[in-house]
């Protein structure tokens, strides 16, 4: 089978790495990919948002299956365009991807179908939002409705911070049209977990639960990032809780989307807040998580290509996935300045040495090749991922690999996975 994978991050390197192991694959293209995906497939220089260009390529190369990594092409409707052209593609339609593309849509859906989530109000007028904030007690969370590259959520400890966030989104339009509407939501406390599943619109197959580390500094302090590390499995989501999430969140959401006339196929990712065994949904995403995918796919024993194909062909009913008993830990190595303005173009050393360690894969994210050398080109540069017999051992293995990699200005958290040791 000829497969086209769309995207260029660490998640896509992990997906390409896993897809390339499938006995069914004859050719793997990644558009646009990164230097890591070039090791396991062939990169084609078409941007992930160039839907017309990707469609022409898929038709010309007779691609058997296209797999979409990031949310933007999904919310732009790539699945609809490919399906109209008779091409097989894994991911939700434009109407279904609204679940991530609009927080107002997803919160209202959760309310209508009694899927547990934080109490919220939506606003499309700035004065109404401010009146509400002035009559409610902080902390509270202000969210831009649309996609804002992970920056559209502001946790506000004071009313002034909340008023400022509303101004930023609605008056200054810092996130463009994403901030035309906002949500003001109850602040939830607890432990976060990432719960992902693959669905064909009828059957929902859970992936192994994972935990992300969103804040830039150790101890979950400092501004939020796309994710500084992740591990799987996580003790925060016990087997009982997993069943509960399936019963109260994942299956009802897929049914709700069907009832709304937006049948959902692809990855359904629920960001959860868990407190004293109670689950609430913080958000839905319509794609795999980054960096959660890196440890999750390191543990998957089945053929990913076969599973994705079954999802596209609505044949998931007999699928249950097999997972390694080992724990996987992914440590993100980032460039100086991230998540603000960061440096680019610095040479990376030690990739071969780290990658040669047993049970370690160094997934590329923000890298480029310049004059034959691998250099930094993004904020999150690498996702160093290791398996271990338990979480302690996986942490040791991951940080051993991290210690072999260096560049001027490298930064990583030192406490990835440590939360699991506390449980
Ligand atoms: P979201 O994009 O909605 O998942 O928000 C990004 C991050 O903001 C989450 O991973 C949480 O860390 C935090 N967050 C979002 N909503 C809430 C909430 N209601 N209470 C506490 N933290 C939140
Ligand atoms: N790691 C968070 C996300 O993928 O949205």
Protein model, in words:
By secondary structure, the chain is an alpha+beta fold. 33% of the residues lie in helices and 27% in strands. It contains 15 helices and 23 strands. The chain has helices spanning 10-19, 37-40, 51-60, 71-76, 78-84, 94-101, 103-112, 126-134, 159-171, 239-259, 293-299, 304-312, 351-355, 391-404, 418-422, and strands at 2-7, 27-32, 42-43, 65-68, 89-90, 120-123, 140-144, 153-156, 182-186, 191-199, 204-206, 211-212, 215-217, 221-224, 229-232, 266-275, 278-285, 327-335, 360-364, 367-370, 373-376, 380-388, 410-411. Strands 12, 15, 18, 19, 22 and 23 form a six-stranded antiparallel β-sheet that branches. Strands 3-2-1-4-5 form a five-stranded parallel β-sheet. A hairpin with a 3-residue loop joins strand 13 and strand 14. Helix 1 runs parallel beside helix 11 (293-299) and helix 8 packs antiparallel against helix 9. It is globular. The chain starts with a strand and ends with a helix.
Molecules bound to protein: adenosine monophosphate, glycine
Discrete helix count: 15
Note the main sheet.
Answer: 6 strands, antiparallel
Oligomer description: single chain
Question: How would you sum up the global shape?
Answer: globular
- The whole-angstrom Rg is 21 Å
Q: What level of helicity do the residues show?
A: 25-40%
How much strand?
A: 25-35%
Mean pLDDT: 96
Task: Pick out the low-confidence regions.
Answer: none
| Through-space gap between termini | 43 Å
Indicate the structural class. Answer: alpha+beta
Number of distinct beta strands:
23
């Amino acid at each position: 089978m000829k497969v086209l994978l769309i995207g260029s991050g660490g998640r896509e390197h992990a997906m390409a790495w896993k897809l390339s192991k499938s006995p069914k694959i004859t050719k793997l293209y990644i558009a646009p990919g990164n230097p890591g995906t070039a090791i396991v497939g062939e990169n084609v220089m078409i941007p992930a948002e160039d839907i017309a260009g990707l469609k022409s390529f898929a038709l010309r190369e007779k691609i058997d299956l296209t797999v979409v990594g990031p949310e933007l092409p999904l919310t732009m409707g790539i699945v609809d365009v490919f399906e109209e052209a008779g091409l097989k593609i894994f991911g939700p339609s434009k109407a279904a991807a609204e679940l991530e593309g609009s927080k107002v849509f997803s919160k209202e859906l959760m309310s209508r179908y009694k899927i547990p989530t934080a109490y919220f109000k939506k606003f499309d007028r700035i004065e109404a939002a401010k009146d509400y904030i002035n009559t409610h007690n902080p902390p509270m969370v202000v969210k831009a409705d649309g996609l804002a590259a992970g920056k559209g959520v502001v946790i506000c400890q004071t009313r002034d911070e909340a008023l400022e966030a509303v101004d930023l989104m609605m008056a200054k339009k810092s996130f463009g049209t994403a901030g035309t509407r906002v949500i003001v939501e109850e602040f939830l406390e607890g432990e976060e977990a990432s719960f992902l599943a693959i669905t064909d619109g009828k059957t929902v197959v859970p992936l192994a639960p994972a935990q992300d580390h969103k804040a830039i500094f150790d101890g979950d302090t400092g501004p939020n990032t796309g994710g500084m590390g992740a591990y799987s499995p996580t003790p925060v989501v016990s087997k009982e809780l997993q069943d509960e999430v399936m019963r109260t969140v994942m299956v009802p959401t897929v049914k709700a989307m069907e009832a709304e006339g937006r049948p959902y196929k692809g990855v359904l990712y629920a960001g959860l807040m868990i407190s004293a065994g109670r689950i609430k949904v913080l958000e839905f995403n319509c794609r795999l998580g980054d960096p959660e995918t890196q440890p999750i796919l390191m543990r998957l024993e089945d053929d990913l290509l076969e599973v994705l194909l079954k999802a596209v062909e609505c044949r998931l009913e007999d699928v249950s996935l097999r997972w390694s008993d080992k724990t996987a830990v992914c440590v993100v190595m980032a460039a100086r300045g991230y998540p603000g303005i960061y440096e680019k173009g610095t040479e990376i050393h030690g990739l071969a040495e780290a990658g040669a360690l047993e049970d370690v894969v160094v997934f590329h994210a923000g890298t480029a090749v310049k004059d034959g050398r691998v250099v930094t080109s993004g904020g999150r540069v690498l996702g160093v991922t290791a398996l271990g017999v338990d979480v302690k051992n996986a942490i040791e293995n991951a940080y051993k690999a991290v210690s072999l990699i260096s560049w001027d200005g490298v930064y990583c958290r030192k406490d990835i996975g440590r939360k699991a040791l506390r449980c």
